[in-house]
Specification:
Helices cover about 20% and strands about 30% of the residues. The strands form 8 sheets. Strands 1, 3, 4, 5, 8 and 9 form a 6-stranded mixed beta sheet that branches. A 4-stranded antiparallel beta sheet has the order 2-10-6-7. Strands 11, 14, 15 and 23 form a 4-stranded mixed beta sheet that branches. The longest helix has about 40 residues. It has 7 helices and 25 strands. The chain is α+β, with helices and mostly antiparallel strands.
Length: about 450
C-alpha cells in the first residue's frame, strides 16, 4: 500500500521541480521508498490461507437390520448391505502459490488447503458361493476397478477374514462372513460422489451347476482381432492429443483379454486347455490362385502401446481387409506380440495352450474373379474356406480333378515348408526352410498348417 502512495507523492513533487523528467524520477524514488516501508511492516509479502470445505460429520453410513440375503441364479444386478465400515479417512492436501518476484517487489503468497475423503467399507451381496462379481456401479456410473483397491469374497465355506478388517479391529477374532458373498473397498475415493458413500450396485454371476464344471478345453475366438489378445492396453492415436482404447471396453481390468479370461476361469473352474485362434486371409476360391496372408484392419492407423506386425509384415506393407461403406469387413490378423502375450498369460494361469491358424476368405461382393463352381464371373462374397477347389470345380466341364494338374495346384497352395523348418529363439520365430517363407508378400501363398477338416473342397480333389 505504501508503494502506491509514495509513487504518487514522488511523481507530484518531481513534476513540480523538474517537469516530465522530474515526475518519472520522483515516481521511481517513491516506489523504492514505499517498497522498503511495505517490507518493514509486512515482511517479504502477505500470506493468505484459503480453507476448502471440510466434513464435520464423518459417519454418513447406515445399514438395515434384518434385511434378507438374496439367493441368485444366472446374471443379476443388485445392491448390497453394509456389513462393516470405519469413519471416513481424511487427507489434507496443501497447495502453495505466489512468492515470485525480486527484492524490490512485494509478493503475496497463498496457501490453499483442501480435504479429500475415502471410505473403508464391507458390503454384503448375496448367498454364496457365486462365480464372480463382474461389474460395479456407483450412483449409476461404472466404477473403474483397475483404479481402486478392493477384494471380493465369493461366499465359500472356508473363506478367510479380510486383512483390512482384522487390521482395523486390532484382533484376528473378526467374522469372515462365510457362506456370504461380499466385497471390501479399501480407501474408496469419495470426491466424485460429493464426499459421501455412493449407492453401489453389482453385477453378480452364478451359473447353474452342470456343464461349466465339466468343461476342460475351449477355443478362444474371434481370431480376427489386431490387439484383442494383448495383455497391455493399446490405443489408436488420432493426433492433437486425441486417442481411444482399442482393447479395453470394460471398466474392470486393464484389458478386455484379462477380464475375459478371468471370467472364463471363474465360470469353468476345471479348465485345462485353450486353443488360440489366429486368422489369416485367403483371396480366391481357386486353389491354384489363392494366396494366404495376414491382413490389417485398415491402413493409416496409428497406435501406441503396440504396433501391428505379423511375420515380418507391418501395417505399411500388409494388405488391409476389404471394406463396405468405409467399414472393414473383418478385424485384422492378431499381431505377433499380442499372440505371445496371450500365450504367456494362458500358461501363467496353468493352462496348456495350442495355436490354431485359421483361414477366412476375404472375397468381397462385386468381385470379378472367375467362379470355379459356375464358370461365370464373380465369386460368392466371403465364402466358406471349405469351398476352395480346383477350377473348373469337380463336375464342371474341363475340371482337372483327379489329374496331375490339380496335384500341382494343391502343391503350389500348400508349399514345401515343414513344421521342422520353424524354431523359436526367445520370442522370435526362426525359419530355416525354402525361400517361399522369406518374408515378402508373395511367399504367403503357403501356410504352415493346412490339413484341416474344414478344407472339404481340397479333400474331394485327391
Amino acid at each position: 500500500m505504501a508503494t502506491i502512495a509514495f509513487e504518487l507523492l514522488g511523481s507530484t513533487l518531481g513534476q513540480g521541480l523538474g517537469g516530465t523528467f522530474g515526475a518519472a524520477f520522483g515516481k521511481a524514488a517513491g516506489a523504492l521508498a514505499g517498497g522498503l516501508i511495505d517490507r518493514a511492516f509486512l515482511g517479504q509479502g502477505t500470506r493468505r490461507v484459503q480453507q476448502g470445505p471440510r466434513l464435520t460429520d464423518l459417519d454418513g453410513i447406515s445399514a438395515s437390520e434384518g434385511a434378507p440375503i438374496p439367493r441368485i441364479y444366472g446374471r443379476v444386478r443388485l445392491g448390497g448391505q453394509v456389513l462393516w465400515a470405519t469413519e471416513f479417512e481424511e487427507q489434507q492436501i496443501v497447495e502453495r502459490s505466489g512468492g515470485i518476484g525480486g527484492k524490490s517487489a512485494t509478493t503475496t503468497r497463498q496457501k490453499s488447503v483442501r480435504y479429500v475423503y475415502s471410505a473403508n467399507v464391507a458390503i454384503g451381496l448375496c448367498e454364496g458361493p457365486v462365480a464372480l462379481v463382474r461389474r460395479i456401479w456407483a450412483d449409476g456410473k461404472p466404477v473403474d476397478l483397475s483404479a481402486i483397491t478392493y477384494r471380493i469374497y465369493l461366499g465359500h465355506a472356508d473363506q478367510p477374514a479380510d486383512p483390512l478388517i482384522v487390521a482395523k479391529q486390532g484382533t484376528g477374532d473378526v467374522p469372515a462372513f462365510r457362506g456370504l458373498a461380499y466385497i471390501v473397498f479399501e480407501r474408496f475415493p469419495l470426491a466424485d460422489y460429493g464426499n459421501r458413500l455412493p449407492q453401489f450396485s453389482f453385477e453378480i454371476v452364478r451359473p447353474m451347476p452342470g456343464l461349466p464344471e465339466r468343461l476342460r478345453a475351449v477355443n478362444i475366438i474371434p481370431g480376427s482381432t489386431e490387439f484383442g489378445y494383448a495383455t497391455s492396453e493399446v490405443r489408436e492415436d488420432f493426433g492433437y492429443g486425441q486417442s481411444r482404447a482399442l482393447n479395453r471396453s470394460q471398466w474392470t481390468r486393464g484389458t478386455d483379454w484379462e477380464q475375459a479370461i478371468d471370467d472364463l476361469q471363474a465360470l469353468c473352474p476345471h479348465l485345462e486347455r485353450a486353443t488360440l485362434i489366429s486368422a489369416w486371409f485367403g483371396d480366391d476360391m481357386r486353389v491354384g490362385h489363392c494366396r494366404l496372408a495376414p491382413r490389417t484392419e485398415k491402413a493409416g492407423k496409428f497406435t501406441t502401446g503396440q504396433i501391428w506386425s505379423v511375420s515380418g509384415l507391418t501395417r505399411d506393407t500388409a494388405t488391409p481387409v476389404s471394406a463396405t461403406e468405409g467399414r472393414p469387413n473383418y478385424g485384422g490378423t492378431p499381431s505377433d506380440l499380442s499372440l505371445i502375450q496371450a500365450i504367456r498369460d494362458l500358461k501363467a494361469r496353468g493352462l496348456k495352450v495350442a495355436l490354431h491358424p485359421f483361414i477366412l476368405m476375404d472375397i468381397p461382393a462385386g468381385n470379378t474373379l472367375p467362379d470355379p463352381s459356375s464358370g461365370g464371373i464373380g465369386q460368392p462374397p466371403f465364402p466358406w474356406r471349405g469351398r476352395i477347389s480346383c477350377s473348373p470345380a469337380p463336375g464342371q466341364p474341363g475340371s482337372p480333378a483327379g489329374t496331375a494338374a490339380v496335384d500341382a495346384a494343391i502343391a503350389a497352395f500348400v508349399g514345401t515348408a515343414q513344421a521342422s523348418h520353424f524354431d523359436l529363439s526367445g520370442d522370435t520365430v526362426v525359419y530355416a526352410g525354402p525361400a517361399e517363407w522369406s518374408g515378402a508378400l508373395d511367399p504367403f501363398r503357403s501356410f504352415p498348417i493346412l490339413r484341416q477338416t474344414t478344407l472339404k473342397g481340397l479333400k474331394r480333389l485327391e
